[in-house]
Structure to design on (223 residues):
């Protein structure tokens, strides 16, 4: 079974802090994704990566950056956290493009105070 | 702009009821539609649909796609409390963009 592991289940940070969310997958998937999930808005794509050191902006990249130095790890960075970034963050991975479902991590519920 | 609309947003039923969840879409160059179930944690994959009229079935869950009318339905028969979850619909386009709907929150009461 594919395992996607997010480093924290719950995280509380303060406004202005730099925040790192880590995601690791163990199935050698090329593609990795970061979403945020908000009530009534569903999942919105922040960034995705289709290979090591490659990244593409999703629908809502503002205020975020990502890093993919190794194939199995995809990090989401909040450069200067703000209260409107309080959300549930979900990481996913998949095989290369095509009819491939994404496998999700358990999510990190991030609160910015 | 591409969009995926799920309805209803929320639904409360009793055990044994049958429910139908809807997902309509407007997507350029449709490729596939996926259904996920999200309980307290990670969304888990249920079905992928690419062709109209072919029903996918897994136990009490089934789903079908209508590419002419641009929608899919997810049916759950004889619902159980363990079916309580958020059901997510996602549509993939030929340029590999995946867009999710807002989800339907299903609550099954004993």
């Amino acid at each position: 079974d594919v395992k996607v592991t997010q480093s924290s289940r719950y995280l509380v940070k303060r406004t202005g802090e730099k925040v790192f969310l880590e995601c690791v997958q163990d199935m050698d998937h090329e593609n990795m994704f970061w979403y945020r999930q908000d009530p009534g808005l569903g999942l919105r794509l922040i960034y995705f990566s289709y290979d090591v050191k490659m990244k593409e902006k999703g629908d809502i990249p503002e205020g975020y950056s990502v890093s993919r130095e190794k194939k199995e790890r995809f990090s989401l960075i909040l450069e200067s956290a703000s209260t409107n970034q309080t959300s549930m963050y979900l990481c996913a991975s998949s095989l290369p493009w095509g009819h491939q479902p994404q496998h999700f991590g358990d999510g990190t519920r991030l609160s910015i105070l | 702009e591409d969009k995926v609309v799920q309805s209803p947003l929320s639904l409360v039923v009793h055990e044994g009821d049958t429910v139908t969840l809807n997902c309509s879409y407007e997507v350029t160059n449709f490729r596939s539609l996926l259904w996920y179930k999200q309980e307290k944690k990670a969304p888990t994959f249920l079905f992928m649909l690419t062709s109209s009229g072919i029903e996918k079935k897994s136990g009490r869950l089934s789903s079908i796609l209508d590419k002419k009318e641009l929608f899919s339905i997810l049916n759950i028969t004889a619902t159980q409390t363990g079916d309580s979850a958020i059901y997510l619909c996602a549509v993939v386009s030929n340029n590999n963009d995946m867009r999710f709907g807002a989800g339907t929150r299903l609550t099954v009461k004993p």
The mean pLDDT of chain B is 93. The CA atoms of residues 24 and 32 of chain B lie 13 Å apart. The first strand of chain B starts at residue 3 and ends at 7.
